[in-house]
Specification:
Number of strands: 20
Distance between the termini: 42 Å
Protein name: Phosphomethylpyrimidine synthase
InterPro entries: ThiC, ThiC-associated_dom, ThiC/Bza_core_dom, ThiC/BzaA/B
Pathway: Cofactor biosynthesis; thiamine diphosphate biosynthesis
Enzyme class: lyase
EC number: 4.1.99.17
Shape: globular
Number of helices: 21
Radius of gyration: 25 Å
Bound molecules: iron/sulfur cluster
Length: about 625
């Protein structure tokens, strides 16, 4: 084949327009598994008079190019436990099976209707345990009535007072809004995954995680029981697929969503959630601060296959007109209960921002940069009192225990610049978070601890060491960290560098940063850029930690690259569409997809082609394919 045969026949501008991705209608190279429908979780019945789905609620569906959804079966459950994975089918006939966060959206056999929400995968497991009751009074026994509750088992949405029906305790879908009645614990001991684990019980959720991660279920239970891992799984979010966050597991990533008072709509935020999980987000946080805060969260929860986190103080602040000094424990508690009943899986709680720590930030270069931290610092100063989240922490534990909501103990005093990294304020708060971790554990409430922020590379390892010492090995969940402050517009890169290193040293989950950090609300493209950057960081950390399953993915891609199996290389990529589009930019012809060179070096200088020739001349055998490789989960 000559270079002319595969040279682009179109101007580059035409090529790029023709190669633009169309992920919403992507067609897999292989058929979906026949057993897919039989393996689906219980579905919700269609609601009578369900409104037609308007265009603005259509979300991205369909598998990634070259992938299909497949299932691993639980070993001890007679095939009842089916764990969805992503299978990349190679041209050699081999398969690579990868951890999959995308939920049913990449399964072409599932009819997606965001107005009905996802099927409640975990509902039968929760019901079978028999330790929940349906709350009709808005947090009965743990803090009184939630706002929006009209006392007749029919709730209003809190935004406009319009009635929202419930149907047999399940999600209703009336007028484009959804709500479900809240379940909570009966008084039979904590229903948290930590409580079960400490009592020696292996739940279906733990089994699910074990299958997905390639670990024994007993290991999952033991890590949770020791507090070294969390399995965020509110009983009111049965749509979620179980996952674990801890040092012993694959490094996870979180993507932040949420509208603000300035821009973005509910439909956009739901699509961002679907989009983020499509590319690999293990959890999402709804950080909405504008109007429709309650309704936005409801839509995200009912459609999210991954755990959802929030920062309840944002909603509490909305309830008091945005004035921090007007905040009360009661307003905060009611916001927490509302969110518990909706199904939020983990909550950032800035209980470690103590009044005496606030003056420590006065000499900082960038002061307090956490929204929650700044709100509580303002409250403490206005009232000359201790942070009400700290003084009411035991009550908060009782509430979260009733729904199995996980604490994400917030770092309200995290550094906002490398100049402030590891300073006295940050470390004082960290010590308090360690104290609160033990309080939560006494209530069987799961805990992870949040960390910075902005940290130069040489201080990253110390952050992990101090967190482990002070917080008793509770999982660490860090924002980045950004390793330099000089690149606004590229902070997904400045922070992914720090994320890879802090993940390598033991951080369990990495909160993504997008290119818009410090500059504006991220859009869909920014979300993808942030997620991909953080998937790279998390995977690099898994490789550095020596996870053999992680390495198998790299090896499969390297084999495809060296063998010039271009389609396999694209399909194994974190972002198959971009990989193919870049190749198409200069070599779009079908014949180029088997050529033994690309446009980077050209045919005469292709080192891999020359290397293959050397290998062939010396009589060395060609590399063999991977067979069936379970790549991301550890073996
Ligand atoms: S031309 Fe260069 S970049 Fe392209 S495949 Fe060969 S060695 Fe790799």
């Amino acid at each position: 084949m000559s270079l002319d045969e595969i040279r682009p026949s179109l101007p580059l501008s035409d090529v790029s327009s023709r190669s633009s991705s169309s992920c919403g209608t992507a067609v897999p190279d292989s058929a979906a598994p026949d057993a897919a429908s039989a393996l689906s979780p219980p579905s919700r019945p269609p609601l009578p008079h369900a409104p037609r789905q308007p265009a603005e609620t259509v979300v991205t569906t369909g598998p990634l190019p070259g992938s299909r959804r497949t299932w691993l079966l639980g070993a001890d459950t007679d095939g009842e436990l089916r764990v969805p994975m992503r299978e990349v089918v190679l041209s050699t006939g081999d398969s690579v099976v990868l951890y999959d966060t995308s939920g049913p959206y990449t399964d072409p056999t599932v009819n997606i209707d965001v107005r009905r929400g996802l099927a409640p995968l975990r509902a039968p497991w929760i019901d079978a345990r028999g330790d929940t009751e349906t709350s009709v009074g808005g947090g009965v026994g743990v803090g009184g009535r939630a706002e929006g509750e009209n006392g007749a088992g029919v709730r209003t949405d809190g935004d406009n007072g319009a009635p929202l029906e419930t149907v047999n305790g399940q999600v209703g879908a009336i007028g484009g809004r959804q709500v479900r009645r809240g379940a909570r614990a009966l008084d039979r001991g904590a229903l948290t995954q930590l409580g079960y684990a400490r009592r020696g019980e292996i739940t279906r959720e733990m089994e699910f995680v074990g299958v997905r991660e390639g670990l024994p279920a007993e290991t999952v239970r033991a890590e949770i029981a020791a507090g070294r891992a969390v399995l965020p799984a509110n009983v009111n979010h049965p749509e979620s697929e179980p996952m674990a966050i801890g040092r012993a597991f694959l490094v996870k990533i979180n993507a932040n969503l949420g509208n603000s008072a300035v821009t973005s709509s509910i439909a956009e935020e739901v699509e961002k959630m679907v989009w983020a999980t499509r590319w690999g987000a293990d959890t999402v946080m709804d950080l909405s601060t504008g109007a429709d805060i309650h309704r936005t969260r409801e839509w995200i929860l009912r459609n999210s296959p991954v755990p959802v986190g929030t920062v309840p103080i944002y909603e509490a602040l909305e309830q008091v007109g945005g004035r921090p000094e007007e905040l009360t424990w009661a307003a905060y508690r009611d916001a927490v209960i509302r969110q518990c009943e909706q199904g939020v899986d983990y909550m950032t709680v800035h209980a470690g921002v103590l009044a005496r720590y606030v003056p420590l930030t006065a000499r900082r270069r960038t002061g307090i940069v956490s929204r929650g931290g700044a709100i509580l610092a303002a409250w403490c100063r206005a009232h000359q009192q201790e942070n009400f989240l700290y003084t009411h922490f035991e009550e908060l534990c009782e509430i979260l225990a009733a729904y199995d909501v996980t604490f994400s103990l917030g770092d309200g005093l995290r550094p906002g610049s490398v100049s402030d990294a590891n300073d006295e304020a940050q470390l004082a708060e960290l010590a308090t978070l360690g104290e609160l971790t033990q309080v939560a554990w006494r209530h069987d409430v799961q805990v992870m601890v949040e960390g910075p922020g902005h940290v130069p590379l040489h201080l990253v390892e110390e952050n992990v060491r101090l967190q482990r010492e002070l917080c008793h090995d509770a999982p660490f969940y860090t924002l980045g960290p950004l390793t330099t402050d000089i690149a606004p517009g590229y902070d997904h890169i400045t922070s992914a560098i720090g994320a890879a290193v802090i993940g390598w040293h033991g951080t369990a989950m990495l909160c993504y940063v997008t290119p818009k950090e410090h500059l504006g609300l991220p859009d869909r493209d920014d979300v993808k850029a942030g997620v991909i950057a953080y998937k790279i960081a998390a995977h690099a950390a898994d490789l550095a930690k020596g996870h053999p399953g992680a390495r198998a993915w790299d090896d499969a891609l390297s084999d495809a690259r060296f063998a010039f199996r271009w389609a396999d290389q694209f399909h194994l990529a974190l972002d198959p569409e971009t990989a193919r589009a870049f190749h198409d930019e200069t070599l779009p012809a079908p014949a180029a997809k088997s050529a033994h060179f690309c446009s980077m070096c050209g045919p005469h200088f292709c080192s891999m082609r020359l290397s293959q020739q050397v290998r062939s001349d010396s009589g060395e055998p060609a590399p063999t394919g991977p067979g069936l490789v379970q790549a991301a989960p550890r073996s």
